[in-house]
Amino acid sequence: MPEVTLKSWIMVLTLGCVWGGSFLGIEIALRGITPFWLAEARLFFASLLLTGVWWALGGRINADNDGRNRWPYLIVVGLFSSVVPFFLLSWGQTHVTSATAGVSMAGVPLLVMPLAHFFSVGERITPMKLLGLMVGFCGVLVLLGDGLLQSSGSDLEGWGRLACLSAAACYAVSSVTTRNCPPIDPYAMSAVVMIIAAVVGLPIAWSLEGPPPLPDTQTIMVLGALGLVQTAGANLLRILVIRSAGSTFMSLTNYQVPFWSMVFGALVLGEALPAGLFLALGLILTGMALSQWSHLRRLFVKA
Prior knowledge:
Blueprint: H1 6-29, H2 35-56, H3 71-92, H4 98-106, H5 108-119, H6 127-144, H7 157-180, H8 186-209, H9 217-245, H10 247-250, H11 253-269, H12 277-291, H13 293-302
């Protein structure tokens, strides 16, 4: 059964901030590297760090020797949590507006909910949970504002939208699969799935964009930060949250990402903040609270 604690809330709020900042890093990195090699670089740096941490902690996989096979779960999570959505988004965002991509990612909780209802123990759909997710989604719509009505003008915009929605579906599938995986060391899981993603992503990037370019020093530093912090560190946090608090709770991160992306863009790049920023934030936080009302009530009653 999922157990949502104060630590769970801190981790999911941290993830929203970290992933929201990744859009700023990606925008800077794309000045010196192509999209698919950017995605592969993130996976490569993340796999190095996570593998090093895993082996330093003993390099074990099974949390217990119950004979159950973890590899099918690890392969599915490796493909659908990183490499497939990374490449779909890298291509899709070249043909759609940022608002379209943002609302696609905000749809992840709505995709996770029915999957978790049918395939995960203790994550049933409730009226309060559904209301909370819908309120949070409305907050994202307010945040993205007029951008939702804009067209990119690309001839492949329809396919770009489909790519972004497919990436969201990948994240939903990987979250539920992570939750349902038999007992496993979280450091092992985070390392192995990232290794799988990096290995699979390498020939894809090479076939689509040729040999890797030689980026400048600034780009390498940004890629390192994206790989080590926003990919490796965030992936480990993601697994810890899903395994303890459940995939539906973890999906609340997706409502925060557009907000933090806009805040970092304003602070670092001087971009204008939308007029409805605080209304959107209020709706997002209200939706998060409503969807997890029973857990919040128990948390404060215990306190």
